[in-house]
User: Which sequence fits this backbone?
């Protein structure tokens, strides 16, 4: 076997091995429904009938009773914003869970005054283990907060410009927004109680703001958080979790590419192509031998 | 060359994998942490600062805010060694704030009572204010002790204490000091009011007030007459008397020249068996500073009304959208009165009906009712003399299970349309207009059931890489009626993909053809020139050329011995030594078949290799040894 042939075969084998590993390697990307690790949302997709949505343009045409959980870490296109607007105004419920992403872009488009403050919410006392995990115990009775004793947030922010009547959850009086990033309260930094969950009527639908998307990850299945997920599922005829605005990762791109390739191969044309390729490789030696003769 | 290729392969392998590693790495730009992986880090300085803030609020008399902050501290992340002390601290503080709040309220009330010359009540209030002030002093003392203990545990006074911790403790101390000042101020106020009471008591003229009612037993909604007299040493005319029903003002009357008063009182619709009346005189105008206030003894009135009893029965189960019948009976002392009946489903009004005596009320279970337990409340509204009544029932909501009978082809040839038909039903009959969805390998089809519950549809099975085997088809039924439960069933079908099978067969055939041609291909030229000695003697064997005695001397002898042994071995093993076979390869093959002579043949082979390839001269002993070995092998191979 000459070197060229050896290298070609080795490259082919490596590509195949890498593709297989990438295909079967479990997803480790944040908020993905197929990620079983601490930062994924597989637990939620196993416990509740969650449909992972790969494009906002695939939102149901009649959204009444449907709930869309949106974690906006990527910018929205005008078409996507319009799709969201249409979803909510026709009766869908949008749960916008954001901290430092593009939630305000959605709020601005939908014409709501409320905003995500985009400053870290720290609570040195009412917390779970550390000040970065504020415990939310001030909850207003509603369908979403039924049977919830407290929620635990993870590197959250707060909501601003929210009417008191719209707020469903406040941080404790000991919490504050860390504007200068020194992790200590300084004169002028807003102190608790600060709004972290709110609900707003919009058209025929509703928009719920949660100032932390990490409520939905596997490792945050603490008692109250799990109850919130259960309440969301119980009050939804259809539960959708958007995956199209999560931060892109190499593994996900590779998996998507492989899935696309697989999809292409399962079409009649693709299948035919594979078979022809297999035949060509098999019959190549015969053809070469004939040529030599 | 082989080593070079291996090294190159490893390098390429690494080069190919290394850029791929980031693909499997954890994305790091999301602002969150694994809560399981972080260490608990309570903030003692923040705890002290919070207590300081709480006592500051209390010192400016914002007791409710201070209490609510204390309440929030219950959920604070507090170091374990401080937990007990913090709990006690919180309890003491809560009691102190409640006592202070009560003390202030009592003092305010005492001041108001003194202002209206109600000395008897004022005395009571001042006594309880004194007790409260004493209790508050004790509680504050306990809190100060606990603060010291907490500071010791937190190491506030240790050299290693941070500036922030010391600052927080100083703020807490300052807040406690302000609280003590407030307490002293309240104690002074209590003493001042007590002194004022003594002065007023000596200066004011006491008064007396009586109260009588008739009749003493009435129906609610009816009126009664109340009368009495206000006097000191003589009658007090033109004074306003307030009549209280259960301590709430109900009517007013003015005393006559003889000091007597008369009032007609209508008993409100309160469905209780007993109410109390009391008359009160509060000095006003010129009377303030002259007369003491007075109140009459309590007079009890027996109030009557018609109690209502409600008996209700309802099914224990219900189905969304289907009606249920609630039966029962509303009864009271006098039957024949129409009553308004309300039915609440989980506290939301579902129906309202006017009933008389027995009733059967048909209500429809809400279509959106979730499966599980719900509360059904039936209540009769109060009506005049008739009291209301309420009954709560527990009702469990189910959805009716449905069945599906599906006919699918046992064998599906891909790609083709899969014809599916069947019937959706439940125990009572057909389920019509139900949405039936079929999903098979990414393809789907939707249809609706007919009036008899039947459906028929086809789904285009796509072409893919499969060959043969079972495949799963999912059928989901979503009934139009809310009382039916949705259903999902999975059915296995056997699929055959002839196109892929044919192509695979063609591939295998081609491969077979290739192998066949290779096997049948003419042997290389070198083999054609191979002599075939003793072909007649060993017909099954065609020995190829082997090392023969081309060498003279000792080498020749060794080689001759090897050749003679080799021939014997070839015969016994029916295995010829090919031209391309080395001595060692042949040895390996022969030794596995003839283990008895493996040892001498190995040694003889080594000697033959020395004779053929070694540069060193061989001695006579080697030749003799070779011959001995050959002889041993031959003997060993004799039958």
Assistant:
């Amino acid at each position: 076997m000459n070197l060229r042939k050896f290298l070609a075969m080795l490259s082919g084998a490596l590509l195949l091995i890498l593709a297989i590993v990438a295909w079967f390697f479990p997803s480790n990307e944040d908020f993905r429904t197929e990620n079983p690790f601490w930062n994924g949302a597989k637990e939620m997709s196993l416990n509740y009938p969650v449909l992972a949505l790969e494009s906002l343009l695939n939102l149901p045409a009649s959204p009444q009773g449907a709930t869309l959980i949106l974690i906006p870490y990527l910018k929205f296109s005008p078409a996507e914003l319009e799709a969201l607007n249409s979803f909510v105004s026709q009766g869908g419920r949008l749960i916008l869970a954001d901290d430092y992403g593009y939630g305000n872009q959605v709020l601005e488009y939908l014409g709501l005054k409320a905003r995500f403050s985009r400053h870290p919410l720290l609570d040195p006392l009412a917390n779970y283990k550390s000040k970065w995990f504020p415990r939310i115990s001030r909850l207003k009775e509603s369908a979403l907060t039924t049977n919830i004793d407290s929620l635990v947030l993870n590197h959250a922010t707060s909501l601003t410009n929210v009417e008191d009547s719209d707020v469903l959850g406040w941080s404790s009086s000991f919490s504050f927004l860390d504007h200068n990033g020194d992790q200590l309260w300084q004169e002028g930094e807003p102190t608790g109680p600060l709004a972290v969950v709110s609900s707003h009527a919009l058209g025929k639908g509703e928009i719920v703001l949660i100032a932390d998307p990490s409520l939905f990850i596997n490792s945050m299945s603490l008692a109250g958080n799990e109850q919130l997920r259960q309440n969301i599922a119980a009050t939804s005829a259809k539960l959708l979790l958007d995956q199209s605005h999560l931060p892109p990762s190499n593994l996900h791109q590779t998996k998507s590419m492989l899935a696309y390739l697989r999809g292409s191969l399962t079409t009649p044309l693709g299948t035919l192509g594979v078979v022809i390729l297999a035949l060509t490789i098999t019959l190549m030696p015969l053809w070469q031998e004939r040529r030599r003769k | 060359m082989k080593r070079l290729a291996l090294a190159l392969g490893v390098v390429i392998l690494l080069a190919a994998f290394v850029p791929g590693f980031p693909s499997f790495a954890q994305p790091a730009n999301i602002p969150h942490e694994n809560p399981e992986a972080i260490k608990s880090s309570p903030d003692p300085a923040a705890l002290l600062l919070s207590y300081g803030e709480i006592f500051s609020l209390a010192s400016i008399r914002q007791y409710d805010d201070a209490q609510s902050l204390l309440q929030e501290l219950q959920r604070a992340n507090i170091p374990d060694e401080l937990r007990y002390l913090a709990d006690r601290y919180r309890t003491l503080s809560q009691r102190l704030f409640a006592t202070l709040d009560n003390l202030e309220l009592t003092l305010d009330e005492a001041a108001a009572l003194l202002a209206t010359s109600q000395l008897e009540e004022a005395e009571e209030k001042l006594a309880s204010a004194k007790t409260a002030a004493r209790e508050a002093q004790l509680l504050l003392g306990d809190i100060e002790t606990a603060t010291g203990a907490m500071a010791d545990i937190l190491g506030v006074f240790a050299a290693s204490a941070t500036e922030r911790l010391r600052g927080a403790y100083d703020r807490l101390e300052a807040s406690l000091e302000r609280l003590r000042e407030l307490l002293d101020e309240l104690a002074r106020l209590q003493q001042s009011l007590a002194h004022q009471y003594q002065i007023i008591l000596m200066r004011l003229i006491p008064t007396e007030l009586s109260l009588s009612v008739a009749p003493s037993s009435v129906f609610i909604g009816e009126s009664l007459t109340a009368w009495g007299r206000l006097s000191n040493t003589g009658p007090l005319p033109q004074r306003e008397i307030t009549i209280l029903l259960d301590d709430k003002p109900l009517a007013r009357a003015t005393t006559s020249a003889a000091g007597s008063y008369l009032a007609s009182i209508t008993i409100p619709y309160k469905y209780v068996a007993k109410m109390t009346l009391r008359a009160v005189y509060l000095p006003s105008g010129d009377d303030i500073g002259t007369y003491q206030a007075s109140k009459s003894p309590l007079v009890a009135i027996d109030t009557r009304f018609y109690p209502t009893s409600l008996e209700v029965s309802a099914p224990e189960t219900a189905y969304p959208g289907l009606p249920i019948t609630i039966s029962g009976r509303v009864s009271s002392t006098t039957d024949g009165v129409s009553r308004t009946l309300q039915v609440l489903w989980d506290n939301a009004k579902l129906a309202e009906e006017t009933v008389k005596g027995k009733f059967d009320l048909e209500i429809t279970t809400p279509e959106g009712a979730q499966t599980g337990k719900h509360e059904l409340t039936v209540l009769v509204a109060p009506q005049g003399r008739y009291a209301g009544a309420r009954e709560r029932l527990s009702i469990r909501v189910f959805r009716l299970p449905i069945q599906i009978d599906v006919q699918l082809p046992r064998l599906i040839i891909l790609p083709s349309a899969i014809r599916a038909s069947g019937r959706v039903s439940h125990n009572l009959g057909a389920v019509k207009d139900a949405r039936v969805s079929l999903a098979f390998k990414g393809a789907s089809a939707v249809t609706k059931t007919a009036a008899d519950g039947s459906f028929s549809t086809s789904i285009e099975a796509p072409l893919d890489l499969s060959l043969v085997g079972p495949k799963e088809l999912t059928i989901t039924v979503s009934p139009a009626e809310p009382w039916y439960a949705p259903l999902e069933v999975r059915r296995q079908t056997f699929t055959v993909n002839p196109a892929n099978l044919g192509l695979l067969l063609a591939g295998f055939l081609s491969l077979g053809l290739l192998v066949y041609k290779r096997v049948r291909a003419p042997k290389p030229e070198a083999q054609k020139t191979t002599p075939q000695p003793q072909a007649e003697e060993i017909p099954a064997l065609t020995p190829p050329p082997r090392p023969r005695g081309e060498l003279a001397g000792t080498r020749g002898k060794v080689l001759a011995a090897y050749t003679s042994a080799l021939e014997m071995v070839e015969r016994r093993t029916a295995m010829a030594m090919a031209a391309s076979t080395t001595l060692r390869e042949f040895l390996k093959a022969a030794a596995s078949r003839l283990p008895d002579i493996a040892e001498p043949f190995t040694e003889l082979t080594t000697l033959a290799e020395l004779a053929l390839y070694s540069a060193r001269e061989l001695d006579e002993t080697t030749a003799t040894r070779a011959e001995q070995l050959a002889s041993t092998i031959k003997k060993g191979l004799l039958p």
